[in-house]
Amino acid sequence: MRLGKKLATAAVGVAALALSVTAAGATPAHRGPQSHGRQDGGNLDRIFVIMLENHSQSSVIDDPNAPYLTSLAHTYAMADHYYGVTHPSMPNYLAAIAGDNFGIQDDNDQNIVNLDRRNLVDQLQAHHIRWDAYFDTLPANKLARFGPEVGGVSVPLYAKKHNPFVLFDDVKNSPARMSHIRDYSRLGADLNSKAAPRFVWISPNQCNDMHGGVYVAVPGHPEAPCPYGSAKDDANDAALKHKADMFVRGAVRTIMSSKAWTKRSAIVIVTDENDFTGNAETGGWESAAGCCDSPYVEAGDPRVSATWPGGTYGGGLIPAIIVTAGARHVVDHTPYNHYSLLTAIEDNWHLGHLGHAGDSANGVLPLKIQRKG
Question: Considering only Cβ atoms within 10 Å of each terminal Cβ, which end of the chain, N or C, has fewer?
Answer without folding.
Answer: C
